[in-house]
Each structure stands twice: as C-alpha cells, then as structure tokens.
Amino acid sequence: MTTLSSATDPPIYPAYCFKSSPTYNAWVKLTAADVHRLRAEPGYEGQRIYFSLNHPIRFVRLVGVIVAIDDINSKYTILTVDDSSGATIEVKIVRLAPEIANAVDCPSNTTVDNVNVVAELGVFEVVVDGCNLDIGTIIKAKCTISEFRGNKQLDLKRVSLVRSTDEEAQAWAEMAAFRQNVLAKPWVLSEEELKRIDKGLKVQRKKEKEYQRLKAEHEARKRARKEAWDQKMAEWEHKAEKKRRKEEAIMNYGAL
Questions:
Q1: Are 29 and 38 in contact (CB under 8 A)?
Q2: How far apart are CA 53 and CA 13, in angstroms?
Q3: Which residue ranges traverse the bilayer (predicted)?
Q4: Which of 45, 108, 156, 182 has the fewest CB atoms within 10 Å, measured from its CB?
C-alpha cells in the first residue's frame, strides 16, 4: 500500500479557501497509519484541522477490526482499532452524564445516538444498533481528530457494523479510490477559482457588514423604545405618587 507523502508538501491555501477543498467538509477515507501521519500546521492550533499534502482534514472515516475495548472512566470508553495499515488507533466514545442520559428523549447514553455503554457491577458492554461489540468486530467509524499525550486519537461521531466481507472490500475500494483521485496529489485552485472565492468572500463580508448595520439599528430602536417606556412609566409613577400625596394630605386635613 502506498503512503501519503509529506516530503514535498505544497503551500497551504488561506483558511477562507478551505470550503472549496474536496476534503474539508468530507468524511475522508483514511487508514490508521494515515491519521497518525497527518500534520498540524502553525495557526491552526486547537482547531482540529490537520493536513495531508495541502488538504485540510477535519473528519475521518476508518474501517477496521476492534482489538481492544477499555472502560477508561465514567466519561470515556476507548475502542482500539486495527485496519492492517501497520498502526492501530484509539477511537474514543464519550458517555453522557446520567442526568442527561436518563432523559426520556435521549436516544442513548453516549454522544452517538446508536451507541450505548452498559457499565454495571460485573458487566461492561458496548452496544451498537442493539449488537454487542467484541474483539474481532469490524466497524466503520466516522470521527473527528484529537490528540492525547502527543498521539492522534479519533472521537467517534457515527458508527456502523461491517457485516460482510463484501461490505468490507467495498469500503477498502472506496478508500483506495479516494486516495488515488484526491489525496495522492496536491489540492490546486485555478486563478479563476481563486477569483471566484475572493469575490464570494467580498460578497459575504458585505452581507455581514449590512447585517451588523441592521442589527445595530434594531438594537438602537429597541433601546429607544425601552427608554421611552421607562420614561413613560417614570412619569406615570410620578403622577401616581403626586396624586397619592394629594389624597393623603386631604385625608390628614379631614382628620384634624
């Protein structure tokens, strides 16, 4: 299997171009070894954006066999996945707090709707679509990328079971095709595309500026109405107090 080289990485386009990338908003089909090779770039720290060549990547699809299931604590469960790429990778399941998980409308006790973690005295199970995961189960996982103690880790967002060799072969074929057609070569924008993106950015900035102007006008009118109402209430309270004092004076005079 060929690897995704980073020896001659092309320049990174500005972040406002990323939406035009074939990888930025896609579940990028990678192997575990590929994920570990993704680069972080200065200026994107903490944004969970990584790069292969100059492709910006946020979301990953991984297919592999579970080789370990670990109950870390009441918040996290870790699946270790091996996809025969020469590396394994940890896939983290985030468990919900009991007060959230026990709500009537909550579909599961994790942040993934079809995944439940059963952790009771003497029992620990991870259940996907009603089926218990076990060592040897093959899964198709869609994840975001994070790091733990300097190592890449995947945060599970969606998952399904791979139930046949045909389905697994298809997944590998899709990954190979995506690698060859997209990831194996740099992402290149033509001058025309860059001009279109720049024009779109200017239009968006103009819309945002107009939105902020209208919002400011709305807030100003809202403040003016509140000030007018407050003034009206103050005048009413002043008149009411004046009337009360007048009536009180009359009553006191009658008492004399």
A1: no
A2: 11
A3: none
A4: 45
Residues 6+ apart with CB under 8 A from 36: 87, 89, 151, 152
Q: What is the pLDDT of residues 130-157, one digit of tens each?
A: 999 999 999 999 999 999 888 999 999 9
Q: Which two structure tokens, joined as six digits, stand for 19?
A: 């939406």
pLDDT of residue 205: 81
Dihedral over Cα of 55, 15, 22, 145: its sign: positive
- Burial (CB count <10 Å: 0-12, 13-18, 19+), residue 65: middle
Closest Cα partner for 9 from 40, 43, 44, 36?
A: 40
Cβ-count burial of 62 within 10 angstroms (0-12 exposed, 13-18 middle, 19+ buried)?
buried
pLDDT at 256: 56
Per-residue pLDDT, 144: 97
Residue 104, pLDDT above cutoff 80: no
Rounded CA separation 146/47 (Å): 10
Cα dist from 76 to 96, 101, 205, whole Å: 9, 14, 41
Closest by Cα among 134, 181, 184 to 10: 184
- Do 51 and 41 touch, CB atoms closer than 8 A? yes
Of 104, 76, 102, the closest CA to residue 91 belongs to 76
